[in-house]
Amino acid sequence: MVYAVVTGGGTSGHVLPARAILELLIEQGHSVDELRYVGARRGIETELMKEFGVDCEFLPISGLQRSLSLDNIAKNIALPFRLLKSRWIAKNLIERWSPRVVVSVGGYASEPMARAAISHNVPLVCVSYDRVPGLATRRQAKHATVATTPFEGVSLAHSVIAGAPVRSEIRHLDSREQRTGARQRLGIPENATVITIVGGSLGSGALNAVVPQLLQRLSLMQSSVAVFHICGTRFMNEPCPNAPQGVWYRRVGYEDRMTDVYAASDVVVARAGASTVAEISTVGVASILVPWPGAADHHQDLNAQWLAEQNATVMSSDQQCESGEIIETIMDLIDQEERRSQLARSAREAGGIHRGNTLANAIQNAAR
């Protein structure tokens, strides 16, 4: 018997919440044999779901390509055929599995299974984790049994506040207890003030460009400072900044040990994607959030504002990265340990709902 099918994907911003939901259900006592995941063949989920233990199906559906290269035009021409085939496969999966509930995390990859659930009267739960839900989630929520939102102020049909889906290892992280071990595993000096710069799964050119000047400023400090820089794999071929004497610096393209990264960090400088904001608040770490200006509906600005309104983060911008103003913001936090502690405490308080079972309960209550 299949209890739940979790669907959605295409980017890590969808796949990681899907994994987190599966982990929540496993913690509630559901066997991996009762769970399924359905994503897209062309999405990052084919890598991120490897070795997770839950049976997966990957549909031929793909997203709309917005640039007008010949290759992308060809992909868009094929899109209706992939969509129809994916819907047919999803219909057969629903009939074969007869799940008690389908959980959609949004994105183009969620459409076929959500549609099949609605047409077969299988309860549908839409899980939103942005302050502005995506188009797929808004459409599906109109037909859902329930839609969950991460916090107050999110407009969505049939919605209840249930927190954001956050991976188990991050929900259960005790930063103080694991800090020393985390720094040892990452090779970071144990007694340094640690600044982590991370631009999401793809990296951020704006954040990366700040690093050389930041390293020079840090070299003027008397105290020990370390910079752990997750630049994104697409930027690894760019010249690596030279760390001045006295400043520990390491650059990596991607880091999957994010529990260690959060535990080791005194300040996290990051984009304001939904998963990043949820993780920062769940763990409770001081942060400077730089919303990506190209995000649809400016949802990263709104994600960051949710924490800023609770005095739980410092907001910055790409313009402040270009002008160097963000470096002054970072230096101020390095100099103010009590301010960092206050930001971390406020963030953890805001993230309390993400650490609980409210989301799991909403899914289980919807199941037939």
Structure write-up:
There is one protein chain. This protein is α/β, with parallel strands linked by helices and 368 residues long. It folds into 2 domains: 159 residues, Rossmann fold; 184 residues, Rossmann fold (3-Layer(aba) Sandwich), CATH 3.40.50.2000. 45% of the residues lie in helices and 15% in strands. The protein contains 16 helices and 13 strands. The strands form 2 sheets. The protein has a 7-stranded parallel β-sheet, with helices on both faces. Strands 10-9-8-11-12-13 form a 6-stranded parallel β-sheet, with helices on both faces. Strand 12, helix 11 and strand 13 form a beta-alpha-beta unit. It is elongated and about 65 Å long. The mean pLDDT is 91.
Given the C-alpha coordinates, what overall shape results?
A: elongated
How many beta strands in the DSSP annotation?
Answer: 13
Strand order of the largest sheet: 3-2-1-4-5-6-7
Task: Name the beta content range.
Answer: 15-25%
Low-confidence stretches: none
CATH architecture assignment of the largest domain: 3-Layer(aba) Sandwich
